[in-house]
Amino acid sequence: MDINVKLVGLFQTGRFKQSHRDYPSTTNVQDVIDDLDLPQQHFGIVLINGVHADVDTLLSEGDHLVLMPVIDGG
Amino acid sequence: MKFQTTDPASNPSAIFYKRCTLDLASGEMTFADLPCRNLEDVLGGFGRSFQDLAKRKVKNAYSDQNPLIVNTGLLTGSSAMTALRTYFSGYSPIKGSKAGLPAAMWSTGSGKFGAKFKWTGLDELLFENRSEQPVYVVIKETEAGPEVELKPAGHLLGLSTHAKIMTLQKEYNNAHFAVIGRAGENWQNNYMGAVALSTENQLKSQEDKFRFAGRGGMGSLMGYKNILALVAQSSDKVGNVSEAVKKVNLNVIKGGGSARIQPLSRGGGGGTWAAYDVLQTFHAVPVNNFRPQGNDIPEKLFRENVEREYDIKSESCYRCGITCHNNISAKNADGSKGEFLAKFDYEPLNLLSTNIGIHDAGQAARLIQLGDNYGMDAISLGVTIAYALSYNQRHPQTPILNGATFGDYEKIHELVIQAGEGQLPEIGKGSMRLSASLGETSYAYHVKGLEIAAYQPETNPGYAWAIAGGHMSMGTYGLLTREGKSDLDSWVRGITEDKLHIVGFDMIGLCKFFDITKGIGTQMVVDCLQSEFNLQVSTEDLRAAVERAFLRGLALELRQGYTKAEFCLPAEVAESPNHNIRLPDISSADFFAKLAKRVWAIFDAKLEGLPDNQ
Ligand code: SF4
Question: What's the domain range around A41?
Fold first, then answer.
């Protein structure tokens, strides 16, 4: 299935800003994180079609997935 | 501190802290080893100072009744990573209730002054009254114990924060410094004076790379007392780091808690500046006085865009492996590093750039540097200027001040200088007073008289219960953006249970980045206390002490005349919803009213049960 993946901030380094990627139909968010080898310690926010989601959420054809690092103030 | 027990929670009075009380009017000073009243006293910082402030009836921040309390936390100066904090507490000139009473306030910063202060043997310095003449205060270690001396400070008067530190460095070896700038000297017209704390890096490089205790006008209070600087002179006292603390320090660095704050070059997240990228995804980066426009304008200050033209170096405070400072310098024609400009932290950067319509990194750096050298709180300064610019945008025919509008760098630059020089009380006294005088308060972005941090209030109703400024004393700023929580239950729990624990770091002497998500009620802190002082304390004891300290802050706000209606967000948030922000809408008056009802039901009950040990 086609997933439109957008990466934010440091996740873009050595990867991409936005890319359409092909995944099998039972892919969840964690699978994408693993596939892209995103650093786990920075992992923070998942949006699917603009809505916050968990890493174990299953993806569907055409989903827009945004993966972001955590934020902290100061 | 002296420890005659290993059990600080049940036997706090067997632990003593050394306080010097200095009457600035007479020069008289008394030293005392005081028994701790409770675990909050043992932990220190505002946990102790607020208990003493609560004993005073203070109607005016600039009065003899208002002390300035300078203290440290239990772990300040220890071998735990980030243990460098100094706390400045007193009734605030800028934060106050509509009843006209000043609020109790603390402000804190890193740098090395706090550790040096602790190593002199003193735990707390309490200033009474005010000096007739400008003075500076030397706190030094001697064989007989700490000594405190008042010195004439005529030669420091009128100097910038950096120049004061450089001048004092020539006179004092082995010392670190806490100074005010011209803003604090002009306390009558500037209520947002900050205290600048010297860093090792600053003293070595001679560049203006300091840290700040910025919030709440503690630098103005220091200026009112006519204290221009504090000098802490002592040998360095970090001995061998125990295996237990080594393990904790490694965990702070490697465990993930501080990873996002560490340098990109080390696989970190690049400091708080990285919040720009994340918040922009939601169109929640404050723009033009907290009105994000749903466009890509904030991206101009993304790191990737700034580093093309400027040199960015990750640097740190003394012995801190987190290395959170992003120091920006000009680039020479050959690409080498040029003149140092400023440090880009998320809050000062946003509030002195995008939120006032400035999108050029060099201009932003100059404004930050200017504010730092005048010794002004970047948050209060930026937000008050943003209010004035917004007013001028709404009243093009009858603008105020110099007529500055969003993005007008030259005029904004002029406003900063005039405010720092004490020539512009309209800015210097903060957005609450300016907006009230103009009769347009709805778009003044302060809560309880203190300007809010660089998180849209639409995303953080928790601001209302922050006792010393949002993001510093209520960690709810990421509850919607980071955690996606938009239901009442999560917000009630966040405000009343979890996120208030951020203030534990304002007691114990550590930076929040030590473990920002969990607070100080953790095994890491337990291990440090055991290893450094042989103290046995549980995570539950620590959490209970932090909660009591927070509640005392809330009780003090109510005692200083705040009505519950003043625990609110700027009116514009609900009156004029900003649909550009791409997050679930929790900004309605209805949501806030329901939240307030439930939060107060919990806090009221807890306040009733608060031990009357003030
Ligand atoms: S976390 Fe940052 S501010 Fe805190 S001690 Fe380390 S370098 Fe300094």
Answer: 2-69
Cross-chain Cβ contact B259/A42 below 8 Å: yes
Ligand 1 contact, B323 CB (< 6 A): yes
Q: Do A44 and B272 touch (CB under 8 A)?
A: no
Q: Across-strand partners of B33?
A: B18
Residue B485, domain member (yes or no):
no
Write the pLDDT tens digit of every residue in A11-69.
999 999 999 999 999 999 999 999 999 998 888 899 999 999 999 999 999 999 999 99
Q: Which atom of ligand 1 is nearest the CA belonging to B316? A: 7
CA distance B547 to B610: 10
Nearest to B260 among A52, A53, A72 (CB): A72
- Going from the first residue of chain B to its last (614 residues), give the mean pLDDT of each consecutive group of 10, the final group possibly shorter: 98 98 98 98 98 98 98 98 98 98 98 98 98 98 97 98 98 98 98 98 97 98 98 94 96 82 84 92 98 98 94 94 94 94 95 98 98 98 98 98 98 98 98 98 98 97 95 92 96 97 98 92 98 98 98 98 98 98 97 98 96 59
- B229: β partners: B136, B179
User: Which residues in chain A are closer than 8 Å to B482, comparing Cβ atoms?
Assistant: 44-45, 70-71
| pTM summary value | 0.97
Looking at the structure of chain A, the number of domains it has is 1
**Number of compact structural domains in chain B:** 1
Q: Average pLDDT of chain B? A: 96
What DSSP line would sit under B372-427, residue for residue? HHHTB-HHHHHHHHHHHHHHHHH-TTS--TT---TT-HHHHHHHHHHHHTT--HHH
Query: What is d(CA B308, CA B513) in angstroms, rounded to the nearest whole number?
Result: 28
How many angstroms separate the CA atoms of B70 and B67, rounded?
10
Q: Please name the residues between 11 and 70 in chain A that touch chain B, using a CB distance below 8 Å.
A: 13, 39-42, 44-45, 47, 50-53, 66, 68-70
Say if the Cβ atoms of B281 and A10 lie within 8 Å: no
Helices within B134-225 (DSSP H only): 161-171, 182-185, 200-205, 218-224
Distance B322 CA to ligand 1 centre (A): 6
CATH of the domain at B122: 3.60.9.10
Is B263 inside any structural domain?
no
Residue B277 to chain A, least CA–CA distance (Å): 5
